[in-house]
TrEMBL record:
It comes from Alcanivorax quisquiliarum. InterPro entries: ABC_BtuC-like, ABC_transptr_permease_BtuC. Its main location: membrane. It comes from the Bacteria. The chain crosses the membrane at residues 59-79, 91-109, 115-134, 146-169, 189-206, 237-261, 302-322. Keywords: Cell membrane, Membrane, Transmembrane, Transmembrane helix, Transport. Pfam families: FecCD. The keyword Phosphoprotein does not apply. Signal peptide: none annotated. This is Iron ABC transporter permease. Belongs to the binding-protein-dependent transport system permease family. FecCD subfamily.
Amino acid sequence: MVIERRFCWALAALLLLSVSALLIAVTVGSVTLSAAELWAVLQGGGDPLHRTLLLDLRAPRAGAAFATGALLALSGALMQVLLRNPLADPYVLGLSGGAAVGALSAMLLGFGAAMISGSAFIGALCSALLVFGLAQGAGSWSPARLLLTGVVVAAGWGALISFLLSVGPAERLPGMLYWLMGDLSYARSPWPAAMLLVAVMVLALPAGRSLNVLARGPLQAASLGVPVVWLERGVYVLASLLTAVAVTTAGSVGFVGLIVPHMLRLVLGNDQRVILPASALAGGSLLTLADTFSRVLIAPEQLPVGVITALIGVPTFLWLLYRSR
């Protein structure tokens, strides 16, 4: 796989940004860690309070934020190829709505954090199966049909979410609303999301050339020997799985999967061999920095990270729309 030198430099810059974002996340907060204190902890020494703060609290949360952002951005890039729409995002097919219904139902029943995450994952997968089954029907499906089905299913999930919020007890509403806005406060381990991210990158990168052809249309892809039906189904399954795991980890975090791949396409072009890894690195960096900002903006209180991504995403998206006129 040959990639131009300027693309290699861009990926190297994004990798440096990712490392910097993770270092900022683990050192900045109510207790700021210096470089010497961080190095001492990494060597196995240092103050016990600093070890607990870094290894038990900040590092898992920073890892979960980076993995979640990378999954959302990668899913958004795949959705944009699948639907051949540069404004598609991971939630366009109602996956976040299904996950939200599952998570909020578990909260109403008084389940713990593990059951809430599991219910969110099951809800997202059920939504993916429902949308795909309805869009396919008795014959084949098209991107337009898939998109319209997803919009209708998402509207149905929205009605159920409003119902659950209406009947929920007052003492549980703050937690439910925080989950809907996206919150990493209860993120436990980043490893499931990180392992999925690595596995999907290993699977998706070799298919970069086929995805480039698919983005130009199914007829041209079929004429060049690309197995369009199986490739589209594979992209849908991968994007749905990425979104399900991301939503399970951090709730419904908006705009990361929309603005990151869209902005990278404007800067780097439309080569999926570059866009996919670049989206993962940029999305992870963005959500890591946004989560750090949400922790320190009104400390000791914390904001849902979805609020920060929305404040960043809305003006950025409007600027992109204005620029693309």
